[in-house]
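note to self — DONT lose this again. spent like an hour looking for the file last time. sequence + predicted structure for the chain T wanted, 192 res
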Amino acid sequence: MSQLTTTSYLILGMLSSRDWPAYELAEQVDKGLTEVWPRARRQLYNAPKQLAEQGLVSATKEATGRRKRTVYSITPAGRKALREWLATDPKRVSLEFEGMIHLLLADQGTIEDLRSTLESVREEALLSRAVFEGHMEYIRDTDGGTFPEKRHLFVLSSAFMIGHFAHLADWATWALGEIESWTDTQAPRPEA
């Protein structure tokens, strides 16, 4: 059996609640998981097929009108693999943040570029925070939405994401204040 990826375990976890076609699995990931686990859509479509080859999910062909689709279900072996993975320590947190790379290399650009980067970071953070506030409201108003049995877990994760994006927006606002008097990005403050 080949090494499973975190994406594979994510798919197993989603299938532990209900059976899904690959397309609907990918759609569910787009509803808030891409901010914590960004992966190419192709990976989300390929993971169930690979899990089926390993006997961790079963694949059933269904007709939907004139089209056929494959619906995936977790197997007992898949549940066992998921439980074993959940008993391990998670990998160290990593952060993919292109805006920080822009900031760290800002001495090679203009103050306007840096200001634009920080404004963009702030705007994106505010938009993302609003998305997760919407998720939280939806979870509350629908008793959990698509996965009512996971409501309590979604509340925890949404609260984290709201706080994360609020912090990012606050940081960008602070950084914009810091650079307000800078004339450039190489020697922004006159020597005292």
